[in-house]
Specification:
Number of strands: 5
Shape: elongated
InterPro entries: Leu-rich_rpt (IPR001611), LRR_dom_sf (IPR032675)
Low-confidence stretches: 1-7, 173-179, 208-250
Distance between the termini: 41 Å
Helix content: 40-55%
Number of helices: 13
Structural class: alpha/beta
Strand content: 5-15%
Radius of gyration: 24 Å
Order of helices and strands: HHEHEHEHEHEHHHHHHH
CATH class of the largest domain: Alpha Beta
Amino acid sequence: MLDLDAVENHDNKLKLISTLKLTSHGSNMYANTCARQRVLKQIQQKGGPRELTLEPNSIDSDLAGLLSRGPLGNLECLNLAFTHVTSACAKHIINLPALKDLNVRSTRFGDAGLELISEHLNQLEILNLSETPVTDKGLTFLANMKMLRKLNLNSTNVSDLAILTLQLLSNMGSGKSRFTQTWRLFSVKEKRNIIIYVIELMLYKFGLEAFNGSIVTLAINHYDEGALRSGISSNAFERVGLISGLNQAF
């Protein structure tokens, strides 16, 4: 990592900058160094910044280093989009008491990270998880985040049923009217299976694993009668979008 501040002589620093700009690689190094210095100045200002963006291609250790440079008690918005951070960075993010907006779009931030931030960042209001490896299991942790009002799950493997269930378990979304409209799209059998799935999630949440297995078996063994008569083994869970093997993931 290039550190221009390590060069004390001003003339030598100018010569170094001029030399760097002679090649495209050197120019990129200089641009990245300037970007880091701007971020550091934000962090070191009185009270700390309200918004912070990590440069692309940064990794978990880069974030940890930045967050250790100064006071961040006022930080409300953290943008980690298009970086290489993973769920491991959550242990640093949870030390931001005022954080309300977290963007981890197109990163490797997954279910383990969601579990940790759901336990500590109860004040989070906006969360962008688009293009991340989160699954239905990770989504169950978000039910604890009562302040969460905006969630982006574009281009993820999260099922529609899990999203609907999250709306049922929390106050998140666009309100009761939207949930009611969505609910009307399902048949009676599909509604029954959704309710069984919600019960499963609640049992899992409270650690009742023994009952959890019984409920899942009950749900999976109840097929659509019309489909059975026609010889088609159609699982009502599958018809409403539940991904295969969700319980095994739990």
